User: Fold these one by one.
Assistant:
Number 1:
Amino acid sequence: MAKKKMYTFSEHRHSRKGITSTILGGISLILFVVLAYIAWWSYGEGGPILGSLGFTGIIFAICGLVSGLSSFREKHILYTFSKAGSIVSSVALVLWIFVVLLGVS
């Protein structure tokens, strides 16, 4: 016999901090890709403007990670965006740290 489809009607909503985390992590990743392309196109002579935009991307990634991790404390919410935002922000932060360490060496 086939299983019956079960529908659930719950009052759970997505976390605002999780959505914010996903947006900040996405902005940081997009900024990373755009700045990496501009730096490649200008043969590494981007100057302080690209550096300051990169620092802004690092701040976005850190804020997104903190926001995503703090959203797990909320009760009666869906954790989809919290998980996605934490993952995206942590990947962006690892990429930014890699670029900074590559530039220091």
Note: Residues 7 and 44 are 55 Å apart (CA to CA).
Number 2:
Amino acid sequence: MPTTFIKKDDVRREWHVVDANGQILGRLASRIASVLTGKDKPEYAPFLDTGDHVIVVNADKIVLTGNKEQDKAYYRHTGYPGGIRETRVEKLRETFPERIIEAAVRGMLPKNKLGRAQYKKLKVYRGSEHPHEAQKPSPLELKTRVPR
């Protein structure tokens, strides 16, 4: 059976919208990363960017399990000696809740040019509104939801 290869131009990209209201962060991020890389498509190739665009709404209503709301911290460095900075999740949720989902998904993507290209297809918004209605995004089904 001959092997067939797909070209970059043959990749069809779709748009999906995900409601993060009541979703667990890690489970949501792993599903989004799978769609961004294109692993759910039959034409998946690990060296090509075959994934779809993903829009995440209601990022401020994401759920963290256990004591992560108080204990989890994100670190960055300013570039100066002794310039390590720490930001707790509870502080980040008040100021930039989009960055919680973005950081989780970024950590699940490849750490190279391909991963950076895949990450650019992720759009995260705090509320339920987004400016991508012209792309006609289809809802992406998720299996887990936290009962409230």
Note: The chain has one domain: 15-139.
Number 3:
Amino acid sequence: MKLFQKRAVAVIASLVFGFAMASHADDGTDTLYKTKCQACHGADGTGNTPAGKKLGAKSFHAPEVAKMSDDELFDITKKGKDKMPAYDKKLTDAQIKDLVKYIRSLK
């Protein structure tokens, strides 16, 4: 019985550690993207959503967006452009920088 208990404790500890690491790995940018960007730009960044289609949201994979610098994407997010709203009063500069990194990672 003791061997079973030791194995059970080891399995539980592994699960708890794994969940803790997964939570730590998500610095909140995924959640921030989901709440601020996903409705228009979609989970994959293509803009293929009803709101994205209606507003003409750019796909992050489009050549003209992919060639933009991080600074350009930062400025567009902060100040807005065309139908893209400004987020300077809603997000910190650090959050916007994290979002730019995040959208670069979308595949």
Note: The chain has one domain: 27-105.
Number 4:
Amino acid sequence: MAEEILLEIVTPEQMAFSGQVEEVTIPGTEGEFGVLRGHESLLSSVEIGELCIIEGTKKRFYAVNKGFAEVTANKVTVLVETAESAEQINKERALRAKERAEEKISKLSREDLEFELINLALMRAINRINVADKSQ
């Protein structure tokens, strides 16, 4: 068994995950990065994406929103706006959110003030759908 590292995924509402893991892969704004015990310390921004946890032979997936990750040699703290495990995601609701966002964005130009907000909503919905598909 590989050495473990403490992972905490924290949102403004709750501690979404806290436990010892072998590896975590985080969607950073400069690209996805993996962390094992003994990793160099770093602070990174987190992008909308899939966070993957490896515990032995088991993988867990979370849909995360923007935030920050702090890495030390034996602990990773991920502070994000939202974090949902694949099992928690209501895929039908995410599909409806995607459809609404696609409909709204199709009526906007890139110069519209709402464009970026709707685009972010679309990205979140797509991410939630992709992560929900991994709950099998």
Note: The longest strand covers residues 15-21.
